[in-house]
Design a protein that fits this description.
Elements: H1 2-19, E1 36-41, H2 49-64, E2 69-74, H3 85-90, E3 96-97, H4 123-131, H5 133-139, E4 147-157, E5 159-162, E6 177-180, H6 184-192, E7 196-199, H7 205-210, E8 216-219, H8 221-226, E9 235-238, E10 243-251, H9 252-256, H10 260-295, E11 299-302, H11 305-315, H12 317-321, H13 323-326, H14 328-341
Parallel strand pairs: 1-2, 1-3, 6-7, 6-8, 9-11
Antiparallel strand pairs: 3-10, 4-10, 5-8, 5-9
Helix pairs in contact: 2-10, 4-14
This protein binds (2S)-2-hydroxybutanedioic acid.
């Protein structure tokens, strides 16, 4: 009798462990592919480069694994938000995140690169920097936390929106308060322009703008359009002064638990997702800007090259201020990417 109880107990324990799905879990059978559920959490809407990349990844992985691997995507901060997604990746409660890297500057000040004013001449130069030696070194810099950077998903330039007057010259920032994604460089940009700033999670931004907690914010056209920030912002200025760039991160313990066959499928899926996220970035940002203009809720200002130059001049001292934190080698790699892929003057 004791033996039967023991066997039943062991069986229940085995079932419980197999079903325990805090992280991706499961076993493999004949085809060698592990049965897994993988969670991908992000904060933006569905009609964005990030979500489209995640969807491409899901489609590939699920179909190539004959549905043995399930990928659950949680957009709009529905699983984790800006405040807790990193910790939950470290704890393996989620297996993929693709944050705007300017939110991770507390882990590595080099994640401030997309916040450096007018750092890249164009998207191609930014992409070349991230794919180059320095970009790859930065991508791998979270190893100490058990976090593995797989690819960069560059998004695009940010524009400024506000409810308290159009932004046409550096002086127009004076006295206004802006929400930032976080980090010392963005903070310094606003203080140099005589404005205040506050970091607010993306999931709370619409309400913060609507309620006047801040006057404005800076973002890509696709984030502004898909979250309808233009509904609660009277003015938008095309600036491209800073960028949103994502990195796709996974948990190292999860990654190392994949057998060769499974890892090959997941790795290929991430590669497909990367391709789509990159392709969609430019297209969706352009489309979104058109949609914002058509909706007509916010007045869109385009600046002349001379007006842009005024902002460049006002923000140039940021480079000296952060050279020690970010590194002259990183600055050099940014310059080289511009020399090779940027707009020649
Ligand atoms: C924001 O927080 O404004 C954006 O960076 C969100 C995102 O992930 O694009």
């Amino acid at each position: 009798m004791k033996k039967v109880f023991f066997l039943v107990g062991a069986l229940i324990l085995t079932i419980a462990l197999t079903g325990c799905n805090k992280s991706a879990s499961g076993g493999s059978d004949d085809d060698g592919i592990q049965k897994l559920t993988i969670k991908f959490s992000h904060v933006v809407a569905e009609n964005t480069p990030k979500h489209q990349g995640a969807l491409a990844m899901k489609e590939y992985i699920e179909s190539e694994s004959n549905e043995k691997i399930k990928v659950e995507i949680y957009p709009n901060s529905s699983l984790f938000g800006d405040d807790d997604e990193y910790q939950n990746l470290v704890s393996n409660n989620v297996q993929f995140i693709a944050p705007d890297i300017s939110k991770f500057v507390g882990h590595n000040p080099q994640f401030n690169v997309p916040s450096l004013p007018f750092a890249f001449d164009n998207d191609e130069a930014a992409e070349a920097f991230w794919d180059g030696e320095k970009g790859q070194e930065i991508l791998k810099s979270l190893k100490k936390d058990g976090v593995l950077g797989l690819y960069w998903w560059p998004n695009g330039g940010k524009h400024v929106t506000s409810n308290s007057g159009p932004i046409k010259s550096p002086d127009d920032f004076k006295g206004q308060k802006f929400r930032t994604q976080g980090g010392q460089v963005l903070e310094s940009i606003y203080s140099r322009l005589g404005a205040g700033s506050e970091s607010i999670p993306f999931g709370e931004l619409y309400t913060a703008l609507d309620q006047g907690v801040v006057d404005g914010e800076e973002n890509t056209s696709s984030n502004i359009e898909s979250k309808k920030f233009d509904e609660v912002q009277k003015y938008m200025t095309i600036m491209n002064h800073t960028r949103v760039d994502y990195a796709i991160f996974t948990n190292t313990t999860f990654w190392d638990s994949l057998n060769d066959k499974t890892k090959e499928i997941v790795e290929k899926g991430v590669e497909k997702g990367t391709k789509v996220a990159r392709e969609k970035a430019k297209a969706l940002n352009e489309e979104s800007l058109e949609t914002i203009k058509e909706r007509g809720k916010t007045e869109v200002t385009e600046l002349s090259p001379d007006q842009i130059q005024e902002f460049r001049d006002a923000l140039e001292p940021i480079y000296d201020e952060f050279e020690d934190d970010i590194g002259s080698d990183v600055y050099k790699a940014v310059r080289e990417a511009n020399d090779e892929y940027g707009d020649s003057e």
